[in-house]
Write a structure and sequence with these properties.
Blueprint lengths: L1 H17 L16 H12 L2 E3 L3 H4 L1 E6 L5 E8 L10 E7 L3 E6 L6 E9 L5 E10 L3 E5 L6 E4 L5 E5 L5 E2 L4 H4 L6 E2 L11 H9 L19 H15 L22 H8 L4 H8 L11 H12 L23 H10 L18 H14 L1
Antiparallel strand pairs: 1-2, 2-5, 3-4, 3-6, 6-7, 7-8, 8-12, 9-10, 10-11
Length: 370
């Protein structure tokens, strides 16, 4: 009997969700969300796992949702021509989680996924989220301000668009004409418990760094000189365009236009004097060589030291291995600015390679400073 009641309540949730008005006229008010609901909901959504490794080859996406006592899930996806607005959809799952769901992709333009997380006792919807898979991009989270709903006539044709607060909007509204402008890529290989979660998403949302076509970010991968230079170039062009004034193309004989990163790296090097460029990278650039921590801070220092945009901090910087670095002044400069830190053992480890996550943490601080 309880199962029948649960299914009936899920049906109410689904109908109400896609009409964008859960508390319909004549229905009692929803019980309020508790702080526990909010906390559990945030953790539950953050624990979802998306696997898009078979998306391009088999048109399959695999979703894993956690099991959380006292709460349940409803999952559905788009069918037909509409993407991400919940007009034509089919139920994929209803239950208590702890399961993996294999879902097919039916639209070459993209597929929307609609997830409801609810309190099983109060049947209160705790979280309602929309994700869209775009070919070549991966899973994207659609924030509330970009979500739109519709009403249709008896033929299923759209007659009115609505914003997320159920207000009518014109078909010429930017949210209709350019939907999901603020979408955020969802990476499948880490979640909100990862130390660099926020900085990675901030840097990717700004467009300075990207993930991989398989939906991963690979935060623990080391980063090459060319990869770092490409990210830095995008950041500088956006935040410090007036600083680009040095032209020394061709100073690195091993780095030619045949390399994927040649052109974009030149956009970073024009912020650095020829002497500083050679001092940081040497007589050869070695674009595919992993960049060291001291080279990262030296490059940042070289691009920004004469900008006038940053204030020198007064606190002292002391690391046990500071003088072992080729760039002690650059380390001092970047540590004082708050761009980078040392290790708990009192060292900086200047010659260590640096990961993609660490680069994100550093460059978010540079963005904030600029």
């Amino acid at each position: 009997m309880k199962n029948i009641f649960i299914l009936l309540m899920l049906l109410v949730l689904m109908v109400s969700y896609f009409s964008f008005s859960f508390a319909a006229e004549g229905l009692p008010d929803e019980p309020p969300l508790t702080q526990e609901d909010i906390t559990v909901g945030n953790n539950a959504i953050a624990s979802i796992r998306w696997d898009v490794s078979r998306a391009e080859s088999d048109n399959i996406i695999i979703l894993t949702i956690p099991k959380i006592d006292g709460y349940g899930w409803a999952v559905r996806k788009d069918v037909g021509d509409y993407v991400g607005i919940g007009l034509n959809w089919e139920q994929q799952y209803s239950g208590y989680g702890g399961e993996t769901i294999e879902m097919s992709l039916t639209n070459p333009k993209g597929t929307g996924f609609y997830i409801i997380f609810y309190n099983d006792s109060s049947f209160r919807v705790v979280r309602e989220e929309i994700y869209v898979y775009f070919p070549g991009s991966g899973i994207n989270f659609i924030p509330p301000e970009d979500r739109i709903g519709v009403s249709t006539d008896e033929n299923g044709d759209i007659v009115q668009y609505y914003d997320n607060d159920d207000n009518p909007i014109s078909k010429n509204d930017p949210r209709v004409q350019d939907p999901f402008e603020h979408k955020t890529l969802v990476f499948s290989d880490f979640n909100s418990s990862y130390w660099a979660y926020n900085v990675i998403y901030k840097l990717t949302s700004l467009g300075y760094i990207k993930g991989y076509p398989d939906g991963t970010f690979r935060p623990e991968n080391n980063i090459t000189r060319a990869e770092f230079s490409a990210i830095m170039a995008h950041l500088l062009e956006d935040k410090y365009p007036e600083g680009a004034k040095y032209d020394h193309a061709g100073i690195f004989p091993d780095f030619t236009s045949h390399h994927w990163g040649y052109e974009i790296t030149q956009h970073m090097l024009i912020y650095i004097t020829k002497g500083d460029s050679i001092n940081v990278f040497g007589d050869s650039f070695h674009p595919d060589q992993f960049i060291a921590r001291e080279e990262v801070v030296a490059a940042i220092h070289a691009t920004l030291k004469n900008s006038g945009k940053l204030k020198e901090a007064s606190e002292s910087v002391n690391f046990r291995d500071l003088e072992a670095s080729r760039f002690p002044d650059s380390i001092r400069y970047c540590v004082k600015q708050g761009f980078i830190k040392g290790y708990p053992d009192g060292t900086f480890k200047p010659n260590n390679n640096i990961t993609r996550a660490e680069i994100a943490a550093i460059l978010v601080e540079v963005v904030e400073a600029l």
